[in-house]
Specification:
Length: 194
């Protein structure tokens, strides 16, 4: 069995896997890792999982947040931006939000998502992958996605003042309408989780 400290690439006090909740919260809330991006993380972000992932792939995460901080996200073309090849890329999309019955939960194994609604608003369903009920479409390794149903979960409001991070252990259902179906512009930064 591999220890979290080996996975995080740190040892001793520098290993976020050994940090107390208080130390993790202090590091997270200080926000140096945002690299100047002025958007706040949603309260649903797993701070411990993020700290471990951040220190394991610090260069990758720093590039991700620098990209978000240094670009006019409302002016980007609708396309995929390669920040670091397949290790780190960011598709920009625009769409109409969906009715809840037309949306499915999804999960990834190879990538962690930073999801940010640049304009508009949507609800994002969130549930731990441990609450998986039925597989609707089995995992497709070429697209790094599986579709599923979950028992439970909650819907969180996604608007331009906050972003979300979904790890491989997080099932999520983005693009849900909040009230009426409405247009959304979104960027999803895909951070390879190896």
């Amino acid at each position: 069995m591999t220890s979290l400290s080996v996975l995080s690439g740190c040892s001793g006090d520098a290993d976020p896997a050994t940090w107390s909740i208080k130390k993790t919260d202090k590091w997270f809330e200080k926000g140096d890792w945002l690299n100047g991006w002025k958007v706040k993380p949603d309260q649903s972000v797993n701070r411990k999982a993020f700290a471990i992932s951040y220190y394991k792939n610090k260069e990758r995460w720093d590039k991700a947040f620098l990209f978000l901080a240094n670009h006019d996200l409302s002016g980007l073309e609708i396309k995929r931006y390669d920040i670091d090849g397949d290790n780190l890329y960011a598709p920009v999309s625009e769409y109409l939000t969906k009715n809840e019955e037309d949306a499915r939960f999804e999960a990834h194994k190879k990538y962690t998502d930073i999801q940010y609604v640049v304009s508009g608003k949507e609800l994002i369903g969130i549930a731990p992958l441990s609450q998986k009920k039925d597989v609707l479409e089995p995992y497709d390794g070429t697209k790094d996605i599986e579709f599923l149903t979950v028992s439970g979960g909650e819907n969180r409001l996604a608007i331009p003042d906050r972003f979300f991070i979904f790890f491989p252990e997080d099932a999520h259902r983005p693009g849900l309408k909040d009230g009426e179906n409405s247009p959304v512009r979104k960027i999803v930064v895909k951070v390879k989780a190896d």
